[in-house]
């Protein structure tokens, strides 16, 4: 279940209440007359089944509550109520399979920005990957995969492209276009300084075969990126967010960026070039698969909406 709060101008309250009361996926409908201060109006609260949330939010937006008032959603971990059970039973589909598009837009929009925190995580991840390459440690490389924050902007690009939110696409693309080069430069400088002071020996990568998979780009790399992108978007659009960890440790994005800089410092430009290619192959594959998943889920959700009534009947 999701808890919905809507700040509503008094003249729209009756319409909003009628809409929510009529929908089978709504429970625990409450109205606080005159409770909203900024903007002024009434506060409407309701618990809605996740599979009905997107339809309900769209209907409230059709009343322009997103402009004249405000609509918020938050997840409910526990709801002990026969009315809530009945709403979930009456709402078509399964909650874990439902996509709440406004929630998805908000989530990916928040994770798509180039910020100091995003840059710090990406730089640390690239440094971890470089350390794993230098020490021939696949475990450290996997740790770098988990730390890397790049899936957020990649998912945002897919969501923005499918929903035609080009502002989201530009913001996410900027985060990647700035974040990766800056992180790679930082990594290169650290590796170079480490080699000067005898902390690292970049030339050892010639014998570090346990991490050769990072720069060995091929058809399998693209297939893995497609599968990871599909799994990642399924996790983001459902209640299976724990699966994202598996996505993080499936793709060779951050490791490729780290390996490229180690190889460059070592003078192995062939491996550096292949690593950069590996990075781009994975980035493109993830976005492509994520977009395909979104298109298919949106088409399925729209076709389902055409076949079911809005009313409780």
Descriptive overview:
The protein has 313 residues and is of the alpha+beta class. It is built from 13 helices and four strands. Helix 6 (116-134) runs antiparallel to helix 7, helix 8 (151-163) runs antiparallel to helix 9 (166-196) and helix 12 (254-266) packs antiparallel against helix 13. The two termini are 21 Å apart. 44% of the residues are buried. The model is unreliable at 309-313 (pLDDT under 50). Pfam families: DUF389. The chain crosses the membrane at residues 114-135, 141-163, 175-193, 213-235, 242-266, 272-296.
List keywords for this structure.
alpha+beta, 63% helix, transmembrane, 11% strand, Alpha-Beta Plaits, 313 residues, 2 domains, DUF389, transmembrane helix, 4-stranded antiparallel beta sheet, disordered C terminus, elongated, membrane, DUF389 domain-containing protein
């Amino acid at each position: 279940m999701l808890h919905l709060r809507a700040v509503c101008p008094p003249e729209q309250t009756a319409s909003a209440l009628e809409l929510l009361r009529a929908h089978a996926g709504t429970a625990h409908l409450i109205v606080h007359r005159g409770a909203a201060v900024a903007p002024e109006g009434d506060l409407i609260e309701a618990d809605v089944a996740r599979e009905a949330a997107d339809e309900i939010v769209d209907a409230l937006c059709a009343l322009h509550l997103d402009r004249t008032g405000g609509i918020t959603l938050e997840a409910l971990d526990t709801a002990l109520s026969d009315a809530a059970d009945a709403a979930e039973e009456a709402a078509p589909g399964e909650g874990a399979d439902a996509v709440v598009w406004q929630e998805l837009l908000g989530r990916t929009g928040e994770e798509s920005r180039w910020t100091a925190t995003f840059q710090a995580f990406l730089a640390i991840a690239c440094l971890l990957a470089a350390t794993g390459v230098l020490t021939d440690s696949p475990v450290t490389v996997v740790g770098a995969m988990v730390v890397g924050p790049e899936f957020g902007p990649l998912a945002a690009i897919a969501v923005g492209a499918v929903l035609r939110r080009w502002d989201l696409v530009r913001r996410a693309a900027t985060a990647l276009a700035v974040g990766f080069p800056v992180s790679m430069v930082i990594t290169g400088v650290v590796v170079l300084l480490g080699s000067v002071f005898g902390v690292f020996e970049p030339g050892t990568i010639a014998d570090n075969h346990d991490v050769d998979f990072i720069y060995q780009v091929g058809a399998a790399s693209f297939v893995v990126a497609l599968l990871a992108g599909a799994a990642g978007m399924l996790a983001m659009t459902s209640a299976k967010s724990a699966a994202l960890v598996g996505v993080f440790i499936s793709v060779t994005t951050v490791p490729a960026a780290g390996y490229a800089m180690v190889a460059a410092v070592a003078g192995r430009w062939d491996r550096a070039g292949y690593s950069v290619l590996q990075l781009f192959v994975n980035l493109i594959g993830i976005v492509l698969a994520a977009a395909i998943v979104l298109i298919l889920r949106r088409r399925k959700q729209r076709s389902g909406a055409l076949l079911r009534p809005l009313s409780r009947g």
